């Protein structure tokens, strides 16, 4: 019985297998329509999340399974003081697999340690969100048809952005990867993440200038620069526009650039960019559902 | 207690000078009713100064605490007044309830019955990270 709490819980071979299954689901959806007949997914979301919960639920329905869901965290047993461990043990009696989102970092791990069914981390605070990384990987594979020899620009809040750290952890497994880390000095990648890149032998350079980096990039992964991350308003106002993607900033970009964003966006990508065929962030959402389907099948050991 | 001779017990030697009391407290040696001696700032050819703890009973010693607080320490196990075994400490791979997670967003802050588990993530830097939230242990 396996759980996935961190993207590191999956080997490179397993990541490649999940991508292959997701591609097969896209090509042959009918083949998978009854794979999870009579199986139940419990979505335990202890904080509001529309997109991730709907994605998990859509994934299970498309596999022919059922979904058990809490109406909202405020009315759950957790609000009455039940521990995560007890909730996990209880839900194990009703469902076949759990997808858990929780505001506290490490809560899905505690659930996995106590449940007798697989647990998927659907986001724990600012910590891990492995199925977002799976969505990112399928998007890269679909757009570039490879995982190696790519120059990946990561732009915005690279200090607190959990999706960026997980994507780096996943992509350092492949050869010929170059990272261009584009952020204000206040929001650079933490040293332990840089160490992951160095130990993997991947190339990496840092810059504060998105325009300067643009021509080299095969992938541009945007994240939001949040006001509350700055010590003073002046710095925020000075820097925020540098990291907003507009059609003008894409003039020097490659014709086959893949623009990604974990969403939701606020204003870091102009809506005018949505019309650009290189914008892939809504494809990412769809790819997330396919990868969640592949992951559910894997953890339920359904071929 | 004659601190030079132990019948059955331990001599925890080569403790980094100044760490003896910390080990005494973490191992809860204050709860023992057997003789316990702490020698502070003993001279050492290798270390300059060192602390030594002698315990005149074969209690269950938490080696993880010793390894974490003073990874260069050694433990002589004395049985029938003879050296039965010499153990060399090193940084343990895993710590349980030795250090505690300070990250306010960690699940351990709300679920207080959870053990505080840390894994060694960088031996050279003596870096431990929380098993739940991966915050660096301090």
What structural keywords apply?
heterodimer, A: 303 residues, alpha/beta, Rossmann fold, 5-stranded parallel beta sheet, 36% helix, 15% strand, B: 138 residues, mainly beta, Alpha-Beta Plaits, 2 domains, 3-stranded antiparallel beta sheet, 8 strands, 10% helix, elongated
Give an overview of the whole structure:
The complex is a heterodimer of chains A (about 300) and B (about 140). Chain A is an alpha/beta fold and about 300 residues long. Chain A folds into two domains: about 5-130 and about 290-300, Aspartate/ornithine carbamoyltransferase (Rossmann fold); about 130-285, Rossmann fold, CATH 3.40.50. Helices cover about 35% and strands about 15% of the residues of chain A. Chain A contains ten helices and nine strands. Chain A has helices at about 10-25, 50-60, 85-90, 105-115, 130-145, 160-170, 190-200, 210-215, 235-240, 280-300; strands at about 40-45, 65-70, 95-100, 120-125, 150-155, 180, 205, 220, 260. In chain A, the strands form two sheets. Chain A has a five-stranded parallel β-sheet. The mean pLDDT of chain A is about 95. Chain B is mostly beta strands and about 140 residues long. Chain B folds into two domains: about 10-90, Aspartate carbamoyltransferase regulatory subunit, N-terminal domain (Alpha-Beta Plaits, 2-Layer Sandwich), CATH 3.30.70; about 95-130, no CATH class. Helix content of chain B is about 10%, strand content about 35%. Chain B is built from two helices and eight strands, in the order E-H-E-E-H-E-E-E-E-E. Chain B has helices spanning about 20-25, 65-70, and strands at about 10-15, 35-45, 50-55, 75-80, 80-90, 95, 115-120, 125-130. Chain B has a five-stranded antiparallel β-sheet with strand order 2-3-1-4-5, with helices on one face. In chain B, strand 4 and strand 5 form a beta hairpin. Chain B is elongated. Chain B starts with 8 loop residues before the first strand and ends in an 8-residue tail after the last strand. The chains are: A alpha/beta (about 300), B mainly beta (about 140). The interface of A and B includes residues 84, 104 and 126 of A.
């Amino acid at each position: 019985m396996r759980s996935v709490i961190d993207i590191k819980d999956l080997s490179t071979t397993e990541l490649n297998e999940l991508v292959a299954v997701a591609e097969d689901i896209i090509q042959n959806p009918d083949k998978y329509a009854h794979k999870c007949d009579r199986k139940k997914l419990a979505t335990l979301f202890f904080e509001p999340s529309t997109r991730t919960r709907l994605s998990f639920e859509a994934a299970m329905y498309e596999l022919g399974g059922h979904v058990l869901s809490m109406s909202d965290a405020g009315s759950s047993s957790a609000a009455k003081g039940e521990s995560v461990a007890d909730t996990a043990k209880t839900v194990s009696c009703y469902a076949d697999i759990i997808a858990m989102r929780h505001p506290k970092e490490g809560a899905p791990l505690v659930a996995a340690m106590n449940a007798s069914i697989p647990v998927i981390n659907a986001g724990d605070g600012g910590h891990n969100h492995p199925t977002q990384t799976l969505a990112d990987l399928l998007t890269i594979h679909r757009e570039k048809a490879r995982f190696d020899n790519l120059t990946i620009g990561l732009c915005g809040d690279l200090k607190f952005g959990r999706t960026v750290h997980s994507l780096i952890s996943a992509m350092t497994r492949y050869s010929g990867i170059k990272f261009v880390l584009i952020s204000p000095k206040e929001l650079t990648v933490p040293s332990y993440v840089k160490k992951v890149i160095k130990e993997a032998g991947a190339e990496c350079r840092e810059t504060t200038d998105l325009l300067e980096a643009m021509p080299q990039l095969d992938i541009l992964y945007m994240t939001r620069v949040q006001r509350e991350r700055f010590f003073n308003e002046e710095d925020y106002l000075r820097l925020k526009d540098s990291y907003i993607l507009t059609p003008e900033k894409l003039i020097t970009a490659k014709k086959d650039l893949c623009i990604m964003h974990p969403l939701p966006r606020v204003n870091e990508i102009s809506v005018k960019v949505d019309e650009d065929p290189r914008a892939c962030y809504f494809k990412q959402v769809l790819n997330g559902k396919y990868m969640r389907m592949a992951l559910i099948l894997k953890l339920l050991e359904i071929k | 207690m004659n601190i030079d001779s132990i019948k059955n017990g331990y001599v925890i030697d080569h403790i980094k000078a100044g760490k003896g009391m910390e080990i005494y407290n973490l191992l809860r040696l204050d709860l023992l009713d057997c003789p316990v001696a702490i020698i502070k700032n003993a001279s050492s050819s290798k270390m300059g100064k060192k602390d030594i703890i002698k315990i005149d009973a074969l209690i269950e010693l938490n080696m993880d605490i010793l390894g974490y607080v003073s990874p260069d320490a050694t433990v002589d196990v004395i049985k029938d007044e003879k050296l039965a075994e010499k153990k060399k400490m090193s940084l343990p791979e895993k710590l349980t309830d030795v250090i505690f997670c300070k990250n306010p967003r960690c699940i351990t802050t709300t679920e207080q019955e959870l053990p505080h588990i840390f894994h060694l993530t960088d031996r050279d830097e003596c870096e431990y990270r929380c098993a739940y939230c991966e915050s660096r242990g301090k």
